[in-house]
Design a protein that fits this description.
The complex is a heterodimer of chains A (97) and B (532). Chain A is an alpha+beta fold and 97 residues long. Chain A is built from 3 helices and 3 strands; from the N terminus they run ααβαββ. Chain A has a domain of 42 residues: Histone, subunit A (Orthogonal Bundle), CATH 1.10.20. A two-stranded antiparallel sheet of chain A has the order 2-3. Chain A is flat. The model of chain A has no long low-confidence stretch (mean pLDDT 87). Chain B is of the alpha+beta class. In chain B, helix 3 links the parallel strand 14 and strand 15. Classes of the chains: A alpha+beta (97), B alpha+beta (532). The interface between A and B is large, with 41 and 63 residues.
Chain lengths: 97, 532
C-alpha cells in the first residue's frame, strides 16, 4: 500500500482539516487507489527522455508594466462569507498557525 | 563563553514596479483595503498569472550588481501553505531553478573588507496582510477574528539568499546596510523599512568548538529593521549558547521575532514546518534570459555604489572619504554630480553639453555616463589641480551647507533639488563664491536667499548687496577708519599682543557691513601697521 493513514493525517493537518477515524480510513483507501493508478506510469520506458515539468510550454510570456482593471472592494468582497467594512473577516487564529 | 557563529540572511525587497508581478493591479502602498485586487491576485478560479517584464528586469539589475550568474532558463514553482492572506493556498516563487545563483556583497566591517557569498536570487509574489483583532466580535460566534487585506497579494519581491558567511552581529549589520544601499542605489525598491518594503529573515548556527562543524541552524523571521535584526541575532545566539552550555542540543526551529517584546518565539506546529510540497507552476512558462536582454538591462541600469565612488575618485579626483560620503545615498551623489557639471559650465570651463539634461536626479545609466565621459575628455582650459579642487568645494557645499539647511528645515534633499534649488541654481551660488564675488558669510546668506526666492542669483546678489568689497583703496579707507577708532588696541598690538589682529579684522568686517574680503583686510591691516 502506497498511502498510509499517517500520510493522510499529515496532509489533512497541513490543510487545517480534521477527520474522524472512519473518514481517515476511507480517504486512505481512495488515495491509495489513486496513487496505484498513477504508479503505472513508473513502468514506462523513459530512457533518453528529458524530464518535462509541464505539457504546454511557452517561454517568456510577459505583460508590460501598466495598470489595468481592478475590482471595486465591494466586488472583491462579494463572495466573502464574512466582511468587516472593506476587510475580509476570517475566524480568529494565531499568527503563522 | 564566546562562540563562533555562522549567520545567513534571506532579504526580501518589494520591487518598485508600477503593477504587481502576475497581474495588472497597481503596486502601491496605503489606500483603502482590498482596493487594488483582481481575480488573479485574489486567486479566483480560472484566473491566469502573466509575468511582469519589469519585475524580471529589476531582478536582473540586482543579479548584475551582486555579480551573480544569471540563469539562462529558470522556472516558477508553487510553494503550498495555508494562511488567510494567501488566497490561492500557494505562493508562486522560484525553487528548482532561480533567476540567478552565486555572487557576493562586498562589505566593509570597521575598515576590514569581507565578501559575503550569495547563494541565489529569485523573484516571487508577496502575500496579503492580516490584522489580528482580538477584541472584535466574529459574526459567526464570539472570539478573536482576523481582518484580511489582499492589496499586497502579488506585489513583486526579489529574495536574496546569502551563504552563512557572516560571523558576527557587526558583520550582519554591515551586510544588511550594504545590501540595502545597493538596492536603493539600483532603484529597484522604494526601500521604506517602516512600510515593510524590505524585510529580513536570518538563520543562525553555532560552530562546534572542538571539531569546527556547524551546528543545527535556527531561523528567525519577521525582521523589519537593522536594529531588530541585531537584537534578534543577539537573542538567538545567547539562547543557543545557553542550551549548549547546559549540555543540550539545538533542535531546528523557526522562530518569529516580536520587536516589542524583544524576543523570538517558536512558530507553532513544528510538524508542518518546511513541508511546502513545491511543484512546478503549470500556469507559467519558463523565464529565458539571453545575453542581449542582460546587456540591455546593464545599459540602462544605475551605477552600484562602490562603482559610483570609484568613478568619482577617477573622474573628479575626489578623496576616498569624500567619494564615500557622497555615495552613501544616490540622491546626494547624483545631485553632487549635476551641480559640479553645472558649476564647470557656469565658470566657462566646460561646454553646455556637460550638463545631462535628462539627469534631474534620475540615476546615471551606463548610457549617460558614456556621453558625459565624451564631453569630459573634450573639456579644455582646466588644469589637473583645478578639477579636484572644484569637486571638493562642490562636495562641501552639497553635504555641509545644503546638508545643514536640509536638516534644519526638515525638507528632504530630493524635494529641495526638484523645487527651489535645482543643481544649476546651486552651481550659480557656488560660482559666486568660487569667483570671489561674495565672501564666506555672504555666500551662506546667498544660499538661503536662493532657496527662499525664485529671483535669479545675480539679481539676488545685487538686491541683497552681498557683493564682496575687494577694491584696495576702499578697503584701505575702511581699515584706516577702524585704526583711528581703536588707538588703545593698536598700541597693545604693536606691543606684541598679536591676537588683537583678529579683533581688528572683525571690526573692519563689521564696518564694511560684512562685505569686505577678509583676506584682503588682514593683508591691508598688516601693511598699514607695518607688521608681518
Amino acid at each position: 500500500m502506497a498511502a498510509t493513514t499517517d500520510d493522510i493525517r499529515h496532509i489533512a493537518a497541513l490543510a487545517k482539516l480534521s477527520f474522524s477515524d472512519d473518514e481517515l480510513e476511507r480517504l486512505t483507501n481512495e488515495m491509495d487507489a489513486i496513487l496505484n493508478y498513477v504508479a503505472q506510469l513508473s513502468g514506462a520506458k523513459l530512457d533518453g527522455v528529458d524530464p518535462a515539468f509541464a505539457l504546454l510550454r511557452r517561454d517568456n510570456v510577459f505583460r508590460e508594466d501598466r495598470v489595468g482593471e481592478m475590482l471595486k472592494p465591494d466586488d472583491a468582497l462579494s463572495n466573502a462569507p464574512d466582511r468587516d467594512e472593506d476587510f475580509f473577516r476570517v475566524p480568529g487564529f494565531l499568527p503563522e498557525g | 563563553m564566546m562562540r563562533d557563529v555562522a549567520i545567513g540572511f534571506e532579504v526580501h525587497a518589494q520591487l518598485a514596479t508600477v503593477t504587481k508581478i502576475f497581474c495588472a493591479c497597481a503596486n502601491e502602498s496605503g489606500g483603502a483595503p482590498n482596493s487594488r485586487v483582481c481575480p488573479v491576485c485574489l486567486g479566483l478560479p480560472g484566473a491566469l498569472p502573466v509575468l511582469n517584464r519589469e519585475a524580471v528586469e529589476l531582478g536582473i539589475r540586482v543579479a548584475l550588481a551582486l555579480e551573480s550568474d544569471i540563469t539562462a532558463r529558470s522556472s516558477f514553482a508553487r510553494k503550498n501553505y495555508f494562511y488567510p492572506d494567501l488566497p490561492k493556498g500557494y505562493q508562486i516563487t522560484q525553487h528548482r531553478t532561480t533567476l540567478a545563483t552565486g555572487g557576493h556583497v562586498d562589505v566593509d566591517v570597521q575598515g576590514t573588507r569581507k565578501l559575503v557569498g550569495i547563494r541565489d536570487i529569485h523573484i516571487e509574489e508577496d502575500a496579503g496582510k492580516t490584522v489580528h483583532a482580538p477584541f472584535s466580535k466574529n459574526a459567526r460566534g464570539s472570539g478573536s477574528v482576523g481582518l484580511v487585506d489582499m492589496n499586497r497579494c502579488g506585489v513583486p519581491l526579489v529574495e536574496i539568499v546569502s551563504e552563512p558567511d557572516i560571523s558576527s552581529i557587526e558583520e550582519a549589520d554591515a551586510y544588511l546596510r550594504k545590501l540595502y544601499q545597493i538596492l536603493i542605489y539600483l532603484g529597484v525598491t522604494a526601500g521604506e523599512l517602516h512600510r515593510g518594503n524590505v524585510r529580513f529573515d536570518t538563520n543562525v548556527s553555532i560552530r562546534n568548538a572542538v571539531d569546527g562543524s556547524l551546528g543545527t541552524p535556527c531561523e528567525i523571521k519577521n525582521l523589519n529593521s537593522f536594529k531588530s535584526a541585531g537584537r534578534a541575532l543577539l537573542f538567538e545566539i545567547e539562547r543557543q549558547s545557553r542550551v549548549l552550555d547546559a549540555g543540550g542540543t539545538i533542535e531546528h526551529e523557526t522562530l518569529l521575532w516580536d520587536d516589542r517584546a524583544e524576543r523570538a518565539l517558536p512558530m507553532r506546529s513544528k510538524e508542518e514546518a518546511s513541508d511546502y510540497r513545491y511543484f512546478p507552476e503549470p500556469d507559467l512558462g519558463d523565464l529565458v534570459i539571453g545575453d542581449d536582454w542582460i546587456d540591455f538591462v546593464r545599459r540602462f541600469m544605475p551605477e552600484p555604489p562602490d562603482e559610483h565612488a570609484l568613478r568619482f575618485r577617477n573622474w573628479y579626483g575626489l578623496r576616498d572619504d569624500t567619494a564615500r560620503v557622497l555615495t552613501a545615498e544616490p540622491t546626494v551623489a547624483i545631485y553632487f554630480e549635476d551641480t559640479l557639471a553645472n558649476l564647470l559650465r557656469v565658470l566657462g570651463l566646460a561646454p553646455d553639453s556637460i550638463v545631462n539634461p535628462a539627469s534631474r536626479l534620475l540615476a546615471i545609466s551606463v548610457e549617460a555616463r558614456e556621453k558625459m565621459s565624451v564631453v569630459f575628455s573634450e573639456m579644455e582650459g582646466i588644469s589637473p589641480e583645478r578639477l579636484p579642487e572644484l569637486a571638493e568645494v562642490t562636495a562641501n557645499w552639497v553635504t555641509v551647507m545644503v546638508g545643514a539647511w536640509v536638516n534644519e528645515n526638515g525638507v528632504d534633499l530630493k524635494t529641495l533639488a526638484l523645487s527651489c534649488l535645482p543643481a544649476a541654481r546651486l552651481a550659480e551660488v557656488i560660482a559666486a563664491r568660487v569667483r570671489g564675488t561674495v565672501n564666506e558669510p555672504a555666500a551662506k546668506r546667498l544660499l538661503v536667499a536662493a532657496i527662499d526666492s525664485s529671483e535669479p542669483v545675480d539679481e539676488l546678489l545685487e538686491r541683497l548687496d552681498l557683493t564682496q568689497v575687494t577694491d584696495a583703496s576702499t578697503i584701505e579707507t575702511l581699515v584706516t577708519d577702524v585704526l583711528l577708532l581703536h588707538p588703545a588696541e593698536v598700541e597693545r598690538l604693536r606691543a606684541g599682543e598679536e591676537k588683537l589682529i583678529r579683533f581688528l579684522v572683525g571690526q573692519v568686517m563689521k564696518h564694511s557691513g560684512g562685505k569686505a574680503d577678509p583676506v584682503l583686510v588682514g593683508e591691508t591691516l598688516a601693511k598699514l601697521l607695518g607688521i608681518e
